[in-house]
Amino acid sequence: MRLFAPLIALCLAAPIAHAQCGGPFPAFVDGLKSEAAAKGFDAATIDAFFRPVRQDPKVLRADRAQGVFQKPFIDFSRHLISQNRIDKGRAMARKYATTFDRIERDYGVSRGVLLAFWAFETDYGGFQGDFNTLNALTTLAHDCRRPQIFRPQIFAALELYKHGDFDPARTTGAWAGEIGMVQMLPRDILENGIDGDGDGHVRLKTSAPDALMSGAKMLSSLGWRAGEPWLQEVRVPDTLDWSLTGPGQTLSVAQWAQMGVRPREGKLAKDTLSASIILPQGRNGPAFIAYPNFQVYFEWNQSFTYVLTAAYFANRLEGARVYDARNPEPGLTGAQMKELQRRLKAKGYDVGKIDGILGAGTRTAAQAEQKRLGLPADAWPTTALLNRL
């Protein structure tokens, strides 16, 4: 049963007439209370909800310290994927087989996909985060880096509280406000929360069926194509036009096959399906073909390395072999990557924040410069590219 659907508009209504972020924290909270009243929440509910809220400096420190994403794919995936996580994931697949059968029937989301998210987000529910969720959301909304993301989540949490599914003093989760076994933000819970165990509530922290069903519903709402693959390891020929590779460029499966792309095991998807070739560490490293469902992963998390690792881990949980790491060229250090980003930005490319992380914008810009300079345009920055720039 999907809950809260008629209530979503309430959390999105009413334009904001006061400060979006910053200023004294108590005054900021007063502004949130005024906005909540304008949205139709009663005074007693508003007062009780906001009474325990506090600014949390640990949240801001966590927001600014995401160094793990600087690791390249091979290091990152080996860091996250252990034999214990694989064994436990397969055990969970057996334990909740009825739930996964229902998910695959109703949403067409394969069990490996959800198991991978469950493992990476909370170690199968073992650690769901110990940040007070209301404090985290309010702190991040007050901070002026991304208030447009976090402010609406506060009112979604208020709606959950109104219906007995959020405790402002005791609900805890990740530093960025995600809650439960698969880490969903309050607004996502409002829009996609499923009562998977039939108790009349969506309890993502304590009910695996609720969490898994809600995660599947969210993926479906983000555009997951039922019953289709998402990622597959491939062999690529040395003669491939590397400038055609990357998650932003697609050809049909048939076209890739004509160029010599071959699956490492099994068969490629149907010829007419669109697909991209992903070379996370360049032409000499591991290679994957990514199908349309792979793009949905970026709606869940925008880190290229995290997304690729999660998609690959889903395959592993369903029996795929360990990828062939091959022998990629050495990449750049964090300091070198920042310098590369500065040089690319100076040339007019949008690489986002100068953070030393090889994200989608930096990859696209690096590939364009590789092609311009006559280097193999595989979007894997090396010292050769940095020196030429």
TrEMBL record:
Q: Does the keyword 4Fe-4S apply?
A: no
Recorded hits in Gene3D superfamilies, A to Z, give: 1.10.530.10, Bacterial muramidase (1.10.8.350), PGBD-like superfamily/PGBD (1.10.101.10)
Pfam families the record matches:
PG_binding_1, SLT_2
Sorted alphabetically, which InterPro entries does this protein's record hold?
Answer: Lysozyme-like_dom_sf, MltB-like, MltB_2, Peptidoglycan-bd-like, PGBD-like_sf, PGBDSf, SLT_2
| Signal sequence region | 1-19
* GO MF annotation, one: peptidoglycan lytic transglycosylase activity
Domain of life according to the entry: Bacteria
Q: Might you name a Gene Ontology BP term for this protein?
A: peptidoglycan catabolic process
Chain ranges of the Peptidoglycan binding-like domain: 333-389
UniProt keyword terms in alphabetical order: Signal
| Stretches assigned to the Transglycosylase SLT domain | 25-314
Q: What is this protein called?
A: Lytic murein transglycosylase
Species source reads Antarcticimicrobium sediminis
